[in-house]
Amino acid sequence: MASLAKRLAENVPGDFFVDSACIDCGLCRQVAPETFADGTRASYVHTQPAGDDEAHRARMALVACPVEIGRAH
Fold it and tell me: What's 46's DSSP letter?
């Protein structure tokens, strides 16, 4: 599970975030590109999901993540 204490500074404020465990596999960016973006060494949340469809895609990305980099409260 993601750690709030390890949340990356690049994330925009909000419930979804990426922490330092990210291995930059890119899966979250493929599943929910409207939420996740490619950073220098890891993905990050560039926009919090807007609406049910985007939130659903973001949750799908979290479930698919091999290291469970983010979570929603």
Answer: S
- The structure tokens listed for 41 are 């060494």
Residues 2, 70 contacting (CB under 8 angstroms): yes
CB contact set of 28 (below 8 Å; sequence gap of 6+):
18, 35, 36, 43, 61, 62, 64, 65, 69, 70
For strands 43-45 and 36-38, give the pairing.
Answer: antiparallel
Amino acid, res. 43: S
Confirm whether pTM is higher than 0.85: yes
**pLDDT digit string, tens, across residues 48-58:** 999 999 999 99
Query: What length is written for the chain?
Result: 73
